[in-house]
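Dear colleagues,

As part of the handover before I leave the project, I'm documenting each prediction I ran so the next person doesn't have to rerun anything. This entry is a single chain, and its sequence is reproduced below.
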Amino acid sequence: MSNSNQPMGFESWLKENQTIRYAAAFITLLIMFIGILGNSLTIIVILKSPRIRNVASAFIISLGAADLLFCIAVLPFNASRFLNINWVQYPVLCSIVPFFQYGNIGISLLFITMITINRYIMIVHPSLYNIVYRPIWITSMIILCLIISFGMLVPTFLGKWGKFENDPKLGSCSIISDESGRSSKFALFITGFIIPCIVIVCCYTSIFWVVHKSEQRMRRHQLSTQSDPTVTNMQSIKRKLSEWRITKMVLAIFVSFVLCYLPITITKTSDPDVKYPALLLTAYIMVYASACFNPIIYVIMNKQYRKAFKAVLSVGCCEKATKRVPVLRSISKRLQPHGKNQEDRGFGTTVSHVSSIALESLDYNNRILSI
């Protein structure tokens, strides 16, 4: 038995609680599968659905790709750690896995920031939108986010500004101080988390103010009797309110991100000796879960995304039946009577009637399948 005054450490606590360890591994693997499926489907849906393809969708695809990378490159190793597979003893893996993990945190929040700025310009400064969001600039923004997120980790990866190494207290490979006592954790926290959060909060404050003013003008217009002179103005207000629906979805993504990463930040700061390992485990699971929340938010909060997801998912099961309908229609047209002979006309009408019944049956089946 260890002394109650001396912290046990996260890794030792896991070894003594086998049921909790296996449960954590199962939850991590479940999150991984849901994240891979959800984020892959999100990317496919956006690429196949022109109605939801816009500037913001380019960043949403990038965000989905980042979460997909996290599920593929990071979560399997975290799950294996709970299964007592000791890969942290290998220096190469102990550097690569946290490199992708920390880089993913930064890139995800930067992409959310880019989407928020996009919503801000769309609603607050619509005249600048077409100037700022040209294909070349959108591509440059995405590349810049990647360079900032992973570029800031290169010195730590090379051991020049802190280093990636196994931390026995945390039971994982993390950023620790190098031989000179330097660590990049604080700088990464400020530049990769605090500054993007401040930018997002400022953008949403301005958006809230503009939308509030637009709603007030809308109410005044509804109460007034003058409609013709303000048609253009009202169209602008309606457009802003429509964009606000998408903006609320982005806000939900940001809130879910903060809620998922805030527990791990608070736990590591307030409990560096891991006196409460159960809290640290819960915080880890919350971080992992962030990779699968976004597709769920898209479906719940956006009607267009919901329809696009349904369309993509229903295409496979209805594809075969749908292909047969045009064939029967062409047969029906070819069997239409063209001659003057009444017997031939009667025969053609009968066959045409039979084929139309078959058509109606298939159309009915298609409707059932699409419900």
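Confidence is low (pLDDT under 50) at residues 327-362, 364-371. The radius of gyration is 28 Å.

All the best with the project,
I.
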